[in-house]
TrEMBL record:
Keyword Ribosomal protein in annotation: no
UniProt xrefs under NCBIfam families: kynureninase
GO cellular component: cytoplasm
Keywords: Pyridoxal phosphate
Single Gene Ontology MF annotation: pyridoxal phosphate binding
Protein's name according to its UniProt entry: Kynureninase
Length: 264
């Protein structure tokens, strides 16, 4: 009953998006379907649907650019020079954070590198990064790059954990067991999505939220997450190339110094 009521309350949002018609998609057996029907879209994890207002917003900005050129940086409904600041207030509610904890910039993996450069400070004793064995390829490559940057052996420093045989997801108790046994040597824990809440025993805990932002409720500040990054072209429907985001908990405001500053 609850699900049915929620579906009814949300159904009007469907009209806010363009849904591809079957006839416009790559070849399918049209004898089995009505080619004039909307497709059933399950690819929001790769690219969100286009909001119908996108064209209007783009045309407004193109018109401003044509008419006033560089003055568009500082005037209009959406001054370009503060474009990211105009939507931070919306983003904070989506990820459950304070505005000062969020930066909207770059792309997902660029932000992950910047965060890792700031949080991953290996020492002879604490030098490992804990991650999922089947981490998203770009995360895996980024971690390899960070380890190589510090001259570390990836096989020794990349501590990967995988689900039990015959299972698809990690068990919390298995993650805790690894941290209990090896926590003194782990510098950073990086997972995708939000799997668990944990006292990291000295490890920094970060998340790649590419498939979580806009898809599940998040409370990054209240959960005490150290850092996180995400993209906006999936469940936030920003479109290919949409600006990404990064989060650093305010508890690190005076203890973690950014490795690089993002400049215009």
């Amino acid at each position: 009953r609850v699900a049915a009521e929620l579906k009814y309350k949300l159904r009007h949002f469907r009209e806010c998006f363009y849904i591809p018609k079957i006839r416009d998609l790559p070849p399918v057996d049209l004898s089995l379907v009505n080619k004039d029907e909307n497709a059933i879209y399950f690819l929001g994890n790769s690219l969100g649907l286009q909001p119908k207002m996108v064209k209007t917003y783009l045309e407004e900005e193109l018109d401003k650019w044509a008419k006033i050129a560089a003055y568009g940086h500082e005037v209009g409904k959406r001054p370009w020079i503060t474009g990211d600041e105009s939507i931070v207030g919306l983003m904070k509610d989506i990820v459950g954070a304070n505005e000062k904890e969020i930066a909207l910039m770059n792309a997902l993996t660029v932000n992950l590198h910047l965060l890792m450069l700031s949080f991953f400070k290996p020492t002879p004793k604490r030098y490992k990064i804990l991650l999922e064995a089947k981490a998203f390829p770009s995360d895996h490559y980024a971690i390899e790059s960070q380890l190589q940057l510090h001259g570390l052996n990836t096989e020794e420093s990349m501590r990967m954990i995988k689900p039990r045989e015959g299972e698809e997801t990690l068990r919390i108790e298995d993650i805790l067991e690894v941290i209990e046994k090896e926590g003194d040597s782990i510098a950073v824990i990086l997972f995708s999505g939000v799997h668990f809440t944990i006292d990291s025993t000295g490890c920094y805990v970060g998340f790649d939220l590419a498939h979580a932002v806009g898809n599940v409720e998040l409370y990054l500040h209240d959960w005490g997450v150290d850092f996180a990054c995400w993209c906006s072209y999936k469940y936030l429907n920003a479109g290919a190339g949409g600006i990404a985001g990064a989060f650093v908990h305010e508890k690190h405001a005076h203890t973690i110094k950014p490795a690089f500053f993002n400049c215009v």
